[in-house]
Amino acid sequence: MAASSGSEYFEIDMEGDMFQRQGSWGMDAPEAREDERELMWASVERLPSVRRQHFAVVQRDSQSSFSQAQSLPFEVVDVRRLDRAARERVLNKAFATTNQDNYNLLSGIKSRFDRLLQPNRPTLTILDNVSGVIKPGRMTLLLGPPGSGKTTLLLALAGKLDSNLKKCGEVTYNGCPLNKFVVQRTSAYISQIDKHIGELTVRETLDFAARCQGASNNWAECLKDLAKLEREKNIRPSPEIDAFMKVASVKGRKANLATDYTLKVLGLDVCSDTMVGSDMVRGVSGGQKKRVTTGEMIVGPRKTLFMDEISTGLDSSTTFQIVKCMLNFVHQMEATVLVSLLQPAPETFELFDDLILLSEGHIIYQGPIEKSLEFFQTIGFTIPSRKGVADFLQEVIFDSVPFMY
Ligand SMILES: Nc1ncnc2c1ncn2[C@@H]1O[C@H](COP(=O)(O)OP(=O)(O)OP(=O)(O)O)[C@@H](O)[C@H]1O
Ligand SMILES: [Mg+2]
Question: How far is residue 126 from each of residues 133, 280, 393, measured CA to CA in Å?
Fold first, then answer.
């Protein structure tokens, strides 16, 4: 076959076939026309790759049909030799509209790239039908095997979910949906991964985080109202607490009392002047770095904290200490804290008020921690003697283990 415009060098052995079919189907039938186009496309595909990019199947000029072959609606052309009219036909077809709207053309080009970049992947449901309440003033533990969706749940609650993930449902804070307020100023997500500026010292890192989050502003505002009310009611505060709050409320200083407080709470005062370090620079130890990550978030004024496996790299007594400090914070300040931990020690586990058990994206149990064993007993899982509750619960929800109980 030889195409009319620009396809002089194009030789494909399909003519005979094509005309036979044309006779039997009739060229007006849309299926027949589509088949002919497929045939042409297949012959272009069969060309060596260097030549293939020079040939395309295009709509034939309807005015110039002389022979039976040319009455076919499509032709294969050499794209290097198109005349102006042919180029216009290609453009009009690609626009796929009579006006100047280029949407179809651009979305067609984009989807051609997208098909390659994002091949059809199976859908993975990370969290399925998850609903519940996390109460203020109660410390909640999130337990689940690796890959069960703990990080995803914490990110979803903190409003930081990957924008590429499809999501439905709603997260609300006191009944207020996430798009009605700045969730980043209300809650903090403490990452499983430590990301720091390695050249800053531990103290500098926390000072910087405190200033970014306006830690002193919060104390200053709270102190102003408090002092006014106390004067009205003739109440005298404890001098130590008054001094602490006044020092913490000093604005505009590089060093902040909130930093010293956080360093003490997290046991980081021993390494406060050591560089945090990175892959290139040796700095504090792995466990200390983990605590710096936690410190960066709790140094600020936010009272809703989502802490993701803060115990990685820490010994059980340090984890216990940190969780205990968080517990005091939760109980005294009515804060809302959800902590995911991997294998908490029994004494750490007992510090928590509530428990959420997650398995393969489903909530298996949500409620007071002391009722959890009772719940599993009612469905036939009894804890063996000398077994830690946290270990037992994690094993029960793990696919391959429950038959042991
Ligand atoms: N952005 C994403 N794209 C694709 N898959 C994801 C994405 N985020 C999470 N996943 C998948 O969702 C599942 C749950 O991941 P997630 O990080 O929430 O688990 P996890 O419970 O925190 O695990 P771990 O205890 O190991 O930290 C995993 O199978 C993970 O591969
Ligand atoms: Mg995780």
Answer: 19, 35, 21
Q: What confidence tens digit (pLDDT) does each residue in 54-88 have?
A: 888 887 776 654 455 456 778 888 888 888 888 88
Q: Is the pLDDT of residue 5 over 50?
A: no
Distances (CA, A) of 203 to 210, 212, 280, 298: 10, 14, 20, 14
Q: Whose CA is nearest to atom 6 of ligand 1?
A: 126
Based on the fold, state whether residues 162 and 244 are members of the same structural domain. Answer: yes
Task: Kindly give the distance from the C-alpha atom of residue 361 to the centroid of ligand 1, in angstroms, as a whole number.
Answer: 10
Q: Whose CA is nearest to atom 18 of ligand 1?
A: 149
Which residues contact ligand 1 via a Cβ below 6 A?
124, 126, 144, 146-152, 162, 165, 192
* Mean pLDDT for the chain overall: 81
Instruction: List the shell of residues around ion ligand 2, using CB closer than 5 Å.
Output: 150-151, 192
Domain count, the chain: 2
Closest CA to 371 of 388, 351, 394, 354: 354
Tens digit of each residue's pLDDT (9 = 90 or more) over 309-326? 888 777 888 888 888 888
Same domain, 162 and 234: yes
Token pair, residue 119, equals 């091949």
Phi-psi category of residue 101: left, alpha or beta, with phi > 0 → left and psi -120 to 50 → alpha: beta
